[in-house]
Design goal:
The structure holds 2 protein chains of 2 kinds. Chain A is α+β, with helices and mostly antiparallel strands. Chain A is 34% helix and 11% strand. Chain A has 8 helices and 7 strands; from the N terminus they run E-E-H-E-E-E-E-E-H-H-H-H-H-H-H. The longest helix of chain A has 16 residues. Chain A is elongated and about 60 Å long. Chain B is mainly α. In chain B, helix 1 packs across helix 8. The chains are: A alpha+beta, B mainly alpha.
């Protein structure tokens, strides 16, 4: 396969950046998208003039959430429920022209080329995406009964790998789907009840502080999500948040924003 | 759990909730407004009697007007605030962007809202105060006359038709979004949310659009 690649090149966060065009020949349809970029980088390095294209990747198995770029206007590319690393070149045609861009959001500053800083997600998790338990002698795994439907719902939400495709796809660069998944996967379990109110208040406050936009119910995030996180979770986040903000005792307590 | 809890009005979710609640009030009004105006099909006496009935209740009338004015202001304030925040959240736009799920109705919400705001002002100047009414304006005492003479002007009828198309789009996305924003979501009933929104949008906008067309067609004269 022969491809024309238009890739966003940006040396550092403060640079303006712009597109550079590369011709890549002899790409195997069996290679993964990232292997195609590896091939490009080897050619760039052999050429000795340009620097290789920086992109995030780790497990290359679709479960770590490190990889991700916008391919022809779609986060993670054209295949549904698939991360960039699990996308294969057979999904493209010989002679295709591809535009590769980083996630675009004020809250995700570009570090270099296609790499963005997703520290904002980490800070949302730090604000409340956990449960507090005393650890000592191991406790029986089935000590607390959990209804099957709740366990399934929690597991569906826990599918989120925090890749940021929802933010990239959203016309408002909103992090509602991510935050909703993280709030839900703990909030529907008995173990998550103790901190349910403070959790949603703290995580939403941090989400707002990071400069993400709001949800306008376009549904782009749900379609772009490689893990099939549903819009239903955003309604749950809204419900949990409004319940805690209006009726919860926690809302009355004073807290400070961590940035 | 650290982190300062923000006041409801300071979060996007809180602002959306304000838009949803004020939206419910305005949806209720616009639906009742359309149903009330259907009495134009029953002729001059019935329609004018309805106007006289409403004006015979000055207390509730003014209470409703104040609540609606407050709703419009709160709705618009939250909308402007959210649009600004949403634009700021993506300072660098994509060179190539494909949409996967969104609808025209969803994309046109801010513009449609602005169009509806201008239309409401125009509509009040036309039928409530009579400042921009064509020909003789006879107040609420002969609202039927104002109704017919207003819509006999094709340009005015056109404005109402176009505005109501935007009202329909706004209602479709707004009603469905309102349920989502308030967390009214259940897998068993979710498929009814969009159907109900489409149904309400078509009935309200369709009813309203029928009035100028009925006047131009000579059905109401």
């Amino acid at each position: 396969m022969n491809l024309t690649l238009h890739i966003w090149r940006q040396k550092k966060a403060t640079d303006k950046g712009g597109f550079a065009t590369y011709k890549l020949a002899g790409v195997s349809p069996d290679s993964s998208f990232l292997e195609m970029l590896d091939q490009l980088n080897e050619e760039i390095l052999a050429g000795g003039k340009d620097e290789p294209v920086a992109f995030d990747h780790d497990c290359r198995e679709g479960i770590c959430g490190a990889c991700g770029m916008v391919v022809n206007g779609v986060p993670h590319g054209p295949q549904e429920l698939t991360t960039t690393c699990q996308l294969h070149m057979r999904k493209f045609k010989d002679g295709d022209e591809l535009w590769l861009e980083p996630w675009r959001a004020a809250a995700f500053p570009v570090v270099r080329d296609l790499v963005v800083d997703r520290g904002a997600f980490d800070r949302i998790i730090q604000a409340g995406g956990y449960i507090s338990v005393n650890t000592a002698a191991p406790r029986d795994a089935n000590e607390i009964p959990v209804p099957k439907t709740d366990a399934d719902l929690s597991m569906d939400a826990a599918q989120c790998i925090g890749c940021g495709a929802c933010v990239a796809a959203c016309p408002n660069a909103s992090a509602m789907l991510f935050t909703a998944a993280k709030v839900t996967h703990l909030g529907v379990l008995p173990q998550g009840q103790a901190e349910r109110g403070p959790r949603v208040l703290a995580m939403v406050a941090q989400m707002e502080a990071e400069g993400f936009g709001g949800c306008t119910n376009h549904g782009e995030c749900e379609s772009a999500c490689p893990k099939g996180i549903k819009l239903e979770f955003i309604a749950r986040l809204n419900r949990d948040y409004l319940k805690a903000a209006i009726g919860g005792r926690e809302a009355a307590q004073q807290r400070t924003v961590r940035r | 759990m650290s982190g300062k809890t923000l006041a409801l009005r300071d979060t996007t979710i809180g602002k959306k909730a304000i838009m949803a609640v004020t939206g419910v009030i305005m949806v209720g009004f616009v639906t009742a407004h359309m149903i009330g105006n259907l009495q134009a099909y029953s002729g001059r006496e019935v329609f004018n009697a309805y106007a006289a009935f409403l004006h015979g209740l000055p207390g509730p009338l003014w209470a409703a007007r104040l609540v609606l004015l407050g709703s419009v202001i709160a709705h618009a304030w939250a909308a402007i605030s959210l649009v600004r925040q949403n634009r700021a959240a993506r300072p660098v736009r994509y060179q190539v962007k494909q949409t996967l799920a969104t609808t025209y109705a969803a994309k046109v919400m801010p513009l449609g809202g602005l169009i509806l705001l201008f239309f409401i002002v125009y509509h009040l100047l036309h039928f409530t105060t009579g400042h921009v009414a064509p020909g003789e304006f006879r107040g609420w005492q002969d609202a039927y006359h104002n109704f017919v003479t207003g819509f006999q002007v094709p340009a005015i009828a056109g404005v109402y038709v176009v505005a109501n198309i935007f009202l329909g789009l706004h209602l479709y996305h707004g009603v469905w979004s309102m349920l989502q924003t308030l967390g009214i979501n259940h897998p068993r009933y979710n498929h009814w949310r969009k159907r109900a929104a489409i149904g309400l949008a078509v009935v309200v906008a369709g009813g309203n659009i029928s009035f100028p067309i009925a006047v131009l067609a000579g059905v109401i004269k």
